[in-house]
Every structure is written in structure tokens, then in C-alpha cells.
Design goal:
The chain is α+β, with helices and mostly antiparallel strands and about 300 residues long. It has six helices and 21 strands. The two termini are about 35 Å apart.
Amino acid sequence: MSLKMKKRLITVASLALVLVIAIGVTLAFLTYETERRANNFTFATEGEGLRAMLTEPTWDGIIDYDYSTDDIIIPIYGYITNPDDWTGPEIPVYGYTNGDIKKPVTDIKSISDTTIRPNGSYGDEDAQNMVPGASVAKNPIITNTGSITDAWVAAKITFVYAAGSEGAGKPLSAVDMAAVDDIIDIDYDTVDWENTAYPTLAGGSREFRYRKILQKDNDGDVEVYGDSTEPLFTTVTIKDTATNEEFYKVENFGDFAIYIEGFATQSIAADDYGEFKQLDITFGNTPTDSAPVIFTELGVYID
């Protein structure tokens, strides 16, 4: 089948924003989480269509998502055997009472202010008040959560002005992006992922394509998914060579945030990675000056 013909058959899915990292004047990283369907998504074409999920478990402990009856996103921190049905499927853990691993909360209706992730060390905690040379754990992963089709996937990172700054949510200018690059290092995986659109994209955006097909969930089990990518990166580091002058440049424009989005297309779109790399793909939620990220108290709003 020709590439041109395959383009007509492609079913694509732009995966919404998952997390934002913000770096402040004290080099403190913050995270925002949307209350909308921004972490677990379904794109219907015929039948179930494509399904995919983006998580960062070393950053926040979240490995999956669920939804309440009023469609509020609920993080899942693990799965355990159902004590009322040892032979049945495992059930999700929505948190732990006061973070005690021995007190899992498995009933959405029982979630309260004391229901939190398990006690431990996470990237978003370690990132507070960072100093030159310090690193934090953060591992963006895309998972094929559907049972209908295998998928090729891609990810896009855009650096935007942080909440509270002038131009909040808009892509960084070329000058400000250069200032950010001067003080941080991100250990991108260049073996499993390929950077296919940098530095040609505006706002310091970097586009990555995954070199392997993600197989679908062949079992159909609720708590079992298909393949996951290797993390796009695993750490964000403040360079130990960064100077006060370089920090001041970032402080002066009001800090920045990292916006991550994903893309998936059914595997019939390309026979191999070389062909997938040639496909024109579109990310549906990339922030622009005219359509910036909107920060809210609960997170990042995606319209």
C-alpha cells in the first residue's frame, strides 16, 4: 500500500496535556494536573477506536486514571487483589489513608482529604528549591490502553511562560528559550525515541517519534494494557555550571513551564518506523500566542 493511500486511512489521536513542570525564581518545580480528560483518553473511529494514556509515575506516583460519576479525573496509584473476590481481577487503589501503604482506599466514594499517595520520595517533592547540579525524577510514558489496534506514537514538548507571568501559557520566545536551555539538562532517550522536529518548531518545541509499534491489549482485562514506551526522559537537571546571570535571565521573564502532549495513530498507517517518520502528524493541543495554556487552580485547562 502506498504512503499516500495510507495517509487517507490513518486514524490519529492527539493526546491532551498531562503534566506541566514550572521552574520558579527559587528553582522550585511545580506540577499542574487538569480536572478534564487530559490523562486518559479515547478517540473513537469505528468501535472503540484508539486509546492511549500518558503517565509519569516517578514524578507523582500515578500509574493510571479513573473517573468519578461526574467525570472528575481520579488518579490511581496501584492495583491490589480484591479482598472480596480473590479469583477476580485486581482493583485500583485511589490512594492511601494518610499515605500509609497498609491502608489502601479502593472505593471512589471513600476518597477524602486524608486519601493521598503512598509515603515516599517523588520527583515533584524533590524538585522544591533546587540548586545547581540537582536532578529530579520525571519519566513521561505513553501506553496503548486499547484492545482494538496497535499504534505508532509520538510526543511533543513545548516550553511556555509559567502561570502568573506575563504571557502565561504562551510559547517562549527564541531568546527566552535559549536562556532556559542555558540552565537545564533533560536526558532524552535517543535510542527508543527520535527528535524529529527541532529546532525548527516555534517556542522551543521538540517533537519525538517512538521507533517501535505499541501492541494493543490482547487480553481485554480492565487492569491490563498493551505496550508502553520507554520513558521519553527520566530526569530534569539544573546544570552545575549555571551562573547567577543565567538564572536572572529566567527570573526576569517570569519563569517557564514544560507542556507535554502526545499523538497516536493506528499501526496500519506505516509498515515500519522509516515510513511512520515520513507521515505528517498533527498535535491538536499545542499552545500558541493566540491559544495559550490556561492555568487554573485545579490544573491546566484544555478546551
